[in-house]
Amino acid sequence: MKVALFGSTGRVGSVVLQQAMPVYEVNCLVRRSSESVSSAKEMIGDVLNEEDVMKTIEGTKAVISCLNTDKNDVLSRSMPIILQAMREHRVKRIITCGTAGILQARKDASLYRFQSSETKRRSTIAAEDHLRAFFMLQASEMDWTVVCPTYLPDGERVGNYRTERDVLPEGGKSISMYDTGDFIFKQLEDDTYLRSRVGICY
Hints:
Elements: E1 2-6, H1 11-20, E2 25-30, E3 41-44, H2 50-57, E4 62-65, H3 74-88, E5 93-97, H4 125-139, E6 143-149, E7 162-165, H5 177-186, E8 196-201
Parallel strand pairs: 1-2, 1-4, 2-3, 4-5, 5-6, 6-8
Antiparallel strand pairs: 7-8
Helix pairs in contact: 1-5, 2-3, 3-4
């Protein structure tokens, strides 16, 4: 199987890439050449460029996006481009890395965590960008999964963590980038959380 991976040079994306390369063919769209993706098919380009995204997704069976958010709304601006390329190439499966902020609050299900007292983050810019991208996935016909880690230190690969649909597991404080990346990779062969968000933590 061939997989398209966006965000392969980031912390979580690089873990996904390490797991995927021995098993699948991987198309990576990167802004500049990187040694870390040397054994994958590296495509130099921009996720906001339709042609670059089309070429990355062409011939694949699934898409993984571990793109980082920024102050330029790259997540919500790139999502329509990715979804359109998936339609053009008849790809249905997409797994993205979100944030625990866009899960439902446990104490008030009408709020997202970033809108509630359950999060200590002062800025909501990143969560709002993630939320807009999530809304687009939710409204699409795709088989999507949004993996939503809480506080994400580098940490180490523990291999033992908790997950829960649409909310963060009770008392969750952190999850390493390694366990997050491993879980995202596993979703390629697991449809347990199809068309849903999944909170992940220790």
